[in-house]
Design brief:
- The chain is an alpha+beta fold and about 250 residues long.
- It has a single domain (about 1-240), classed as Phosphatase 2c, domain 1 (4-Layer Sandwich).
- The chain is about 35% helix and about 25% strand.
- The protein is built from six helices and ten strands; from the N terminus they run αβββααββββββαααβ.
- The strands form two sheets. It has a five-stranded antiparallel beta sheet with strand order 1-10-9-6-7. Strands 2-3-4-5-8 form a five-stranded antiparallel beta sheet.
- Helix 1 (about 1-30) packs parallel to helix 2 (about 80-95) and helix 2 runs antiparallel to helix 3.
């Protein structure tokens, strides 16, 4: 009996150690501060459901008044998700150092994941490059929840342009475009947000809130989260183009 108790204690201690290690890895992937983008306000909200979540996000400044926004949602949680997120971050930053075309992120990361990760592991992700001067967005949506762009009283969804990453090595991806006009906003999120909104039309509620454009606040969005339905990581990126920015 003493041997069994000792074995169980060692097992639990190892699990706790693994959780701490995974949490430390994940914390290194989360930007401590967001870059200041002239003419824009950027807000992020991240809340893991468990000690270690399965979401990853990044904001990277690029040459030529451009900014890359990345949000990814990994299948699974814990150490496996943390290690996969670290792998994705390294790939994203490596690609961003030489190439700012969103299509290249999907085309290079997808076959890598397909080759080096188990068949049951995949990632939904969206890569968005914002031209800060024109407000133009160039994006690739790899099976992720459609981001929403609002402005002039209307909203546009940036629908999927390809399969989740890691499912098929030969998957094809397409580039989409949109514009964030002065006074408008861009909302990117993981399904933890929509799944935690009560009601059968969470996307409609998000559009209603985002219709306020640059007047939308993170508090408005976070208020939609119902703790009774919150069973996943929640990640929200809100990018607002201030009204007096040049159109």
């Amino acid at each position: 009996m003493n041997g069994m108790l000792a074995s169980e204690f060692v097992r639990k201690t190892q699990l706790e150690s693994d959780q701490i290690a995974a949490r430390q890895i994940q914390l290194t992937l989360i930007p401590e501060t967001l870059p200041e983008l002239p003419g824009y306000e950027v807000e992020m909200f991240y809340k893991p459901f468990r000690e270690v979540g399965g979401d990853y996000f990044d904001v990277i400044e690029l040459p030529g008044s451009r900014t890359l926004f990345v949000i990814a949602d990994f299948s699974g949680k814990g150490m496996a998700a943390a290690l996969l997120a670290a792998n994705i971050q390294a790939l994203v930053r490596s690609i961003a150092s030489v190439e700012a075309n969103p299509l290249m992120f999907a085309r290079q990361i997808n076959p890598h994941l397909s080759r080096y990760t188990p068949a049951d592991r995949f990632v939904t992700a969206v890569f968005i490059v914002l031209n800060r001067e024109s407000g133009e967005l160039t994006f690739v949506n790899a099976g992720h929840n459609a981001p929403i762009v609002s402005g002039a009283g209307s909203t546009t969804s940036l629908e999927a342009t390809g399969m989740p990453l890691g499912l098929f090595s030969n998957a094809e991806y397409e580039t989409g475009t949109a514009v964030v006009h002065a006074g408008g906003a861009l909302l990117v999120f993981t399904d933890g947000l929509t799944d935690s909104i009560s009601g059968d039309k969470p996307e409609s509620l998000l559009r209603d809130v985002l219709a306020g454009g640059a007047g939308t606040t993170m508090s408005n969005l976070k208020s939609l989260v119902d703790p009774k339905f919150n069973e996943d990581d929640v990640t929200i990126l809100l990018v607002k183009r201030i009204a007096h920015a040049t159109s």
